[in-house]
Amino acid sequence: MIEVEIKAKIENPKYEIEKLDKLGAKYSHTERQHDIYFNAPDKDYKKTDEALRIRKIPKNDTEFEKILTYKGPKLNDISKTRKEIEVEISSITKMTEILENLGFKKAATVDKIRRIFTYENYTITIDKLEKLGTYMEIEDVVKEDANIDEICDNIMEIFKKLDITDNFERTSYLELLEENKE
């Protein structure tokens, strides 16, 4: 599958939520996500623009969904469109141990609070990250033969309807956190 995603830094999440409501977006839920990123033993994912992560997401009050995700390099110059492959895992500890035994190294962790909305066939999230601020992402997950340019145009139209016309960011949260360290 291909994840077509565009994000923008926002300053006033409450105001943006009001605009989402007026647009007709439906609030789904809020979740705290914890991501552990890994780097490969044979190449540097910073240089190849790839990512490998384990994400922990609450299913309910006592259970968590744990997902191993590979993200390929960005496919265009406008968005964060990437090939994405995900598989649910049963144990973060055991998956981490497998990866480390294969030579992968933990690169970083990213924690965020994500508010999730739906609008038409798009997922819209408002992500709050300590040290980085708040971002809105609009994404669509499509088949590999989809017209990515058309989907990017549609996402930009949604941003325009929300009066968001600048502060777009192609850099991943991981990369932004690493830049923030320097």
Order of helices and strands: EHEHEEEHEEEHEH
End-to-end Cα distance: 34 Å
Question: Roughly how many Å is the radius of gyration?
Answer: 17 Å
Indicate the CATH architecture.
Answer: Beta Barrel
Question: Helicity range of the residues?
Answer: 25-40%
Tell the overall outline.
Answer: globular
Please list the strands of the largest sheet in the order they lie side by side.
1-5-4-3-2-6-7-8
Mean pLDDT score: 93
Question: Short description, anyone?
Answer:
The chain has five helices and nine strands, in the order E-H-E-H-E-E-E-H-E-E-E-H-E-H. With 182 residues, the protein is α+β, with helices and mostly antiparallel strands.
Task: Characterise the protein shown here.
With 182 residues, the chain is of the alpha+beta class. It has a single domain, classed as Hypothetical Protein Pfu-838710-001 (Beta Barrel). Helices cover 26% and strands 45% of the residues. It has 5 helices and 9 strands; from the N terminus they run βαβαβββαβββαβα. A hairpin with a 3-residue loop joins strand 7 and strand 8 (133-142).
Topology:
Layout: E1 2-10, H1 13-23, E2 26-39, H2 45-48, E3 51-58, E4 64-71, E5 82-89, H3 92-101, E6 105-119, E7 122-129, E8 133-142, H4 148-161, E9 168-169, H5 173-181
Antiparallel strand pairs: 1-5, 1-8, 1-9, 2-3, 2-6, 3-4, 4-5, 6-7, 7-8
